[in-house]
Write a structure and sequence with these properties.
CATH superfamily of the largest domain in chain A: MetI-like
Structural class of chain B: alpha/beta
Strand content of chain A: under 5%
Number of domains of chain B: 2
Number of domains of chain A: 2
CATH superfamily of the largest domain in chain B: Periplasmic binding protein-like II
Helix content of chain A: over 70%
Pfam families (chain B): SBP_bac_8
Protein name (chain B): ABC transporter substrate-binding protein
Oligomer: heterodimer
CATH architecture of the largest domain in chain B: 3-Layer(aba) Sandwich
Number of strands of chain B: 12
Keywords (chain B): Signal, Transport
CATH architecture of the largest domain in chain A: Orthogonal Bundle
Number of helices of chain B: 19
CATH class of the largest domain in chain A: Mainly Alpha
Largest sheet of chain A: none
CATH topology of the largest domain in chain A: MetI-like fold
Subcellular location (chain B): Cell envelope
Helix content of chain B: 40-55%
Largest interface: A-B, 43 and 55 residues
Main location (chain B): other
Structural class of chain A: mainly alpha
Chain lengths: 276, 450
């Protein structure tokens, strides 16, 4: 008995040590990044990481000397609209694939999946040509319209909707709910967790876009945050690394907030199911 | 709680719509505000502190006259901007004047999307003799000025003068040979008790090309592309071998430190230099601002080193030039040229050099108070400008007018890296030659050049 206890304790100690080491490895770059954002650029250029010359100057400079607030605003609008649109359109199409019976349903769904197999980078040239012809270059439309829906979102929600008990559908038919009522009042609340997951996923996806906005935006008025970060760096001359690092820290904050909110909902959703 | 949840979705929706309305309006308002000035859209790739300096130049131009209004728009890195310029040509978003970097010159020229600035120079009888000849030659073809050099830099050699003083080492001459640098590097390494590495040369194709230019050797045939489209590249030549042998000798002696390639290598070697880990390195003259501002040591600068027993031919330039698009009406193009002329004024160039570290191209800039004060404060900051003024333009030091330079540089860097890691020089250069030529043949075929 005694020896067995020791073994479990050892095992536990070992796994905690291992997890601690992994946590340090994974979090170290993040904390180094945050730490350097408080250091003056000269200390960073010299590789002097343990300087005690800490201040908020870099953050003040980032907010006052660059249009980072404008970029944050642009990105919030684009990411929010993309997220809402994806939630609406993906859930509606997923609903059709699960609850409506029509011919070629499977074929259409396969077609949907095919578009998912193609990486976005492969569609850049045709998409760019389309946007150019529509005259949407350097416009919010160019950053939103190609992402109004996503095959992955439909796929994910379809899998989730399929888990909805058939009894609910039958019960709602007896109650006389039409498709839209059933969708809005039963399917969506029932699949709240998947919806929130997709929402967080699409928001972060839009937030972290780099290549597409880089190609289609041409001025500060429509630029998004990731490209704005690139703008803080000059090609060949002196760089203000401290301010760049501070800006990077600023633009990470919203994504962390989204993740925390998502996690909170995710947890409460799981508990609800378990208690019932 | 549930009430709050019900409200959440519509609230977000409304908020989103309001935000779009506000920002959308701001967007359209921007184009609605118009005085009778002709708008000249200017695309550039100057980020960070250089962007602030550039905006000042633009503001200065807009205040200096009331016919044209230049609108600067940042486009991303040099490479990205090239694609954007080519892909948006003939649309309403395209620029009237744009900044394109050195190695895209052939691509821009062949695109047929630009109006040679020579046309306007002839019209105005504008005197270009004041503008650095080496810089002009880089962007000229068939004796016609295609674009006007703007932000220009040259590679120079930086050394830590304080360290040399401390260990009693004679500094290298202002135009050093390879063996001059080897001597200093070795002495520094030995006398510091192996604490300070002597030198480094970043794995960067630009430096290899500059070593050839300085040795008066052409990399591509047809005079580096200045008298016809290049069809053959010859990296494996005695001058490249001598350059790489120089580096190899120092690697063997142990006084060389390799920081690798890419932008991080540049940042790391600067950090190494500033923290006394390495005594000598080669970098763009544009880095000078950073090196003199945050350096507790005395900074020494010399010209780019040249092979022993040969006269330095002078290095070519790097940086970017201003081009005029031909898809805009005459008066807009005229405005673009007026802006270009403004950027080349002695005072504007002097201020540009002072605030960015790029070199002033107008010879009269040296006489302005702005640069005189700068030189009085940091006498060594004179050196890069002197190197530029010293060089006489010929085909070897006027850049390589060839498409596909981006890939060529990558392949040159592969060869350099192989040698740094102990590989055989001849084999590495032969491989580079073969791959560069294969790529060139393919490019020429694709473009329909003979």
């Amino acid at each position: 008995m005694q020896s067995l206890d020791e073994r479990t304790v050892l095992k536990r100690v070992f796994s905690y040590v291992l997890m601690a080491i992994l946590a340090v490895i994974i979090l170290a770059p993040f904390f180094i990044g945050i730490w350097t954002s408080f250091l003056p650029t000269m200390e960073i250029a010299k590789g002097n990481m343990f300087s005690t010359n800490v201040s908020l100057d870099n953050y003040v400079a980032a907010f006052t000397r660059t249009p980072i607030l404008r970029y944050l605003g642009n990105t919030v609008v684009i990411a929010a609209v993309t997220m809402i649109a994806q939630l609406i359109f993906c859930s509606m199409s997923a609903y059709a694939f699960v609850f409506l019976k029509f011919r070629f349903r499977k074929t259409f769904f396969t077609l949907f999946l095919v578009t998912m197999m193609l990486p976005f980078e492969a569609e850049i040239i045709p998409n760019f040509a389309t946007i150019k012809q529509m005259g949407l270059l350097d416009h919010f439309g160019a950053l939103i319209i190609p992402f109004l829906t996503s095959a992955f979102g439909t796929f994910m929600l379809r899998q989730s909707f399929m888990q909805t008990p058939a009894e609910l559908k039958e019960a709602s038919d007896i109650e006389g709910l039409n498709h839209f009522q059933f969708y809005w009042k039963i399917v969506l609340p029932y699949n709240k967790i998947s919806m929130i997951t997709l929402g967080a996923y699409s928001f972060l996806g839009a937030w972290n876009q780099y290549l597409w906005p880089m190609l289609t935006t041409f001025s500060n008025n429509s630029r998004v945050i990731q490209n704005g970060l690139k703008q803080l760096k000059s090609e060949e001359t002196f760089n203000d690394w401290g301010m760049i690092q501070a800006s990077a820290a600023i633009i990470v904050i919203p994504t962390i907030i989204v993740l925390f909110i998502g996690q909170h909902y995710f947890k409460s959703g799981m508990n609800e199911g378990a208690v019932k | 709680m549930s009430k709050y949840k019900k409200l959440a979705l519509p609230l977000i929706l409304v908020l989103g719509i309001v935000l779009i309305a506000v920002f959308g309006k701001a967007l359209s308002a921007k184009s609605a505000v118009k005085d009778n000035r002709t708008e000249v859209v200017f695309w550039h790739e100057m980020g960070g502190p250089s962007e602030q300096a550039l905006v000042k130049v633009v503001d200065g131009f807009n205040k200096s006259q009331n016919k044209y209004k230049v609108v600067p728009k940042y486009q991303g890195s040099y490479d990205e901007a090239i694609q954007k310029i080519l892909q948006t040509h003939n649309t309403s978003t395209s620029p009237a004047v744009f900044q394109a970097f050195d190695i895209s010159t052939a691509q821009m020229l062949h695109s047929g999307y630009t109006t040679p600035v020579q046309n306007f120079i002839d019209e105005d009888k504008y005197d270009v003799s004041k503008i650095s000849a080496v810089a002009r030659a880089f962007y000229a073809n068939d004796g016609k000025q295609q674009a006007m050099p703007f932000n220009t830099s040259q590679p120079v050699l930086y050394f830590n003068a304080s360290l040399l003083e401390k260990y009693g080492i004679t500094p290298p001459p202002v135009s050093p040979s390879y063996s001059d640098i080897t001597r200093v590097a070795k002495e520094l390494y030995e006398k510091s008790g192996h604490k300070v590495k002597g030198m480094t040369v970043q794995v960067y194709g630009w430096f290899l090309e500059q070593a050839l230019a300085n040795a008066n050797r052409q990399l591509a045939n047809n005079n580096d592309g200045h008298t016809g489209n290049p069809t053959k590249v010859n990296v494996n030549n005695p001058d490249t071998v001598e350059f790489l042998n120089w580096i190899k000798e120092n690697i063997k002696a142990g006084d060389f430190i390799d920081y690798g390639s890419g932008a991080n290598a540049g940042a790391n070697q600067t950090a190494g230099f500033l923290s006394d880990k390495v005594g000598i390195f080669i970098q763009s003259s544009a880095s000078m601002g950073q090196l003199s501002k945050s350096n507790k040591n005395k900074l020494g600068i010399t010209y780019f080193p040249h092979p022993d027993g040969k006269k330095a031919n002078g290095v070519s330039i790097g940086g970017a030039a201003l081009w005029i698009s031909n898809d805009k009406p005459k008066d807009v193009q005229r405005g673009a040229f007026e802006f270009i002329k403004y950027t080349l004024k002695p005072e504007v160039q002097a201020q540009w050099q002072k605030s960015t570290g790029y070199l002033a191209l107008n010879k009269d800039s040296q006489k302005t108070d702005i640069l005189k004060e700068l030189y009085a404060k940091n006498p060594e900051s004179k050196v890069p400008g002197e190197q530029l003024a010293h060089a006489k333009a010929n085909f070897s030091n006027s850049g390589i007018l060839m498409e596909g330079m981006q890939l060529t540089r990558q392949l040159e860097e592969v060869a350099m890296e192989t040698v740094y890691n102990g590989g055989d020089i001849k084999t590495a250069l032969n491989t580079a030659d073969k791959n560069i030529n294969d790529n060139l043949t393919q490019l020429n075929k694709a473009n329909g050049f003979k």
